[in-house]
Amino acid sequence: MPNQNGGTLHETWVALSDTVLSGHVYTLTDSLATEHREYLRIERFAGTWVYLARPRGAEPTLFWWDAQASDSTYWVFRNPEHDYPKRIVYNLREAGKLTAWIDDGDNATEDRIEFRYVSKLKP
Known about the structure:
Layout (H helix, E strand, L loop, with lengths): L7 E8 L4 E9 L5 E12 L2 E8 L5 E5 L8 E5 L8 E8 L2 E7 L9 E6 L5
Antiparallel strand pairs: 1-2, 2-3, 3-4, 4-5, 5-6, 6-7, 7-8, 8-9
């Protein structure tokens, strides 16, 4: 996904097991330098799913899965105590096309940052 500062944003995920996904976000600049690394993890914990974000390797921030707002193609994670974002959403629009966004919670549109991804995997 093109980045507003130049370069391309990449987000990759690997299933480590049926209950753990490991993710990595980075920007590859036009000069092929890597910027803004973030380590991600989605895992089953205490009977629900949690999303752990570690921007630039910082201590993880937890976001809890909102089962009532989610379905098989729309996953919502929330942490109302976090400064920003308070909500992370992944929406599988169709095979190989995913929209993700972060925002300040329900009905937040002004502070929404959206990411559109296309899978590089061949079906």
